[in-house]
């Protein structure tokens, strides 16, 4: 699968793919794992200004709109902006400004170095772990944990509303937006069309509390 940003007569078009299902959820006291093998758009410098590839999830109640965001949860499995040699993962939850999830930034890993993420496929994953004694969300690149958000980072109600329900998956490449701008670049005449985000596979799996 390739998601390719294009430009015609000065206007940009790109793609966003969502799963039909919106009931991907951890079993009671178990684990939900969501992963994809992705190569980022192979463009950098001024030509990448405004590029924003992402793999993420939203709570099922947001299927028809953003009412209730961020309370019902968003897990950014992988994001990258402006052709940087970095990726990051984040959790959005709680209330729109501030709150336990530090919105609108969210509980983020910050930039993680990845020098070959544009040329090579890497496996990006998130696990929602509701097993007693764990109760956390974990982010992985190539099976290495690089970020965690534990349930005790917020009150019990915020945690439950954010993770204890079904989600749907989203793959997209945006061009422009607040995150690339916050990183210091805006889409402009030098931004190059035609550089795809390549997706080799997507997988969802669960593990019960008993394994």
Biggest β-sheet description: 7 strands, antiparallel
What is the share of helical residues? under 10%
Mean pLDDT: 96
Radius of gyration, whole Å? 17 Å
- The best one-word shape is globular
User: What's the total count of β strands?
Assistant: 15
Which structural class best describes the helix and strand composition? mainly beta
Instruction: Tell me the β content.
Output: 35-45%
Catalogue the unreliable spans.
none
Distance N to C terminus: 32 Å
- What is the correct CATH architecture of the domain at 2-20 and 38-120 and 160-203? Sandwich
CATH class of the domain at 2-20 and 38-120 and 160-203: Mainly Beta
> With helices defined by DSSP (H or I, 4 residues minimum), what is the helix count?
2
Order of helices and strands: EEEEEEEEEEEEEHEHE
At CATH level 3, the topology of the domain at 2-20 and 38-120 and 160-203 is Jelly Rolls
Protein name: Family 16 glycosylhydrolase
Family: Belongs to the glycosyl hydrolase 16 family.
Domain GH16: 1-210
GO molecular function: hydrolase activity, hydrolyzing O-glycosyl compounds
Describe the structure.
- InterPro entries: Beta-glucanase-like, ConA-like_dom_sf, Glycosyl_Hydrlase_16.
- GO terms for molecular function: hydrolase activity, hydrolyzing O-glycosyl compounds.
- This is Family 16 glycosylhydrolase.
- It comes from Streptomyces sp. SID7499.
- With 211 residues, the chain is mainly β.
- It has a domain at 2-20 and 38-120 and 160-203: Jelly Rolls.
- Helices cover 6% and strands 41% of the residues.
- It has two helices and 15 strands.
- It has helices at 156-163, 178-182; strands spanning 2-3, 6-8, 11-13, 16-18, 31-39, 51-59, 74-79, 86-92, 107-108, 112-113, 122-129, 136-141, 144-150, 167-175, 197-207.
- Strands 4, 6, 7, 8, 9, 10 and 14 form a seven-stranded antiparallel β-sheet that branches. It has a six-stranded antiparallel β-sheet with strand order 1-15-5-11-12-13, with no helix packed on it.
- The longest helix is centred in the last third of the chain and has 8 residues, at 156-163.
- The protein is globular and about 50 Å long.
- It starts with a strand and ends with a strand.
- The model has no long low-confidence stretch (mean pLDDT 96).
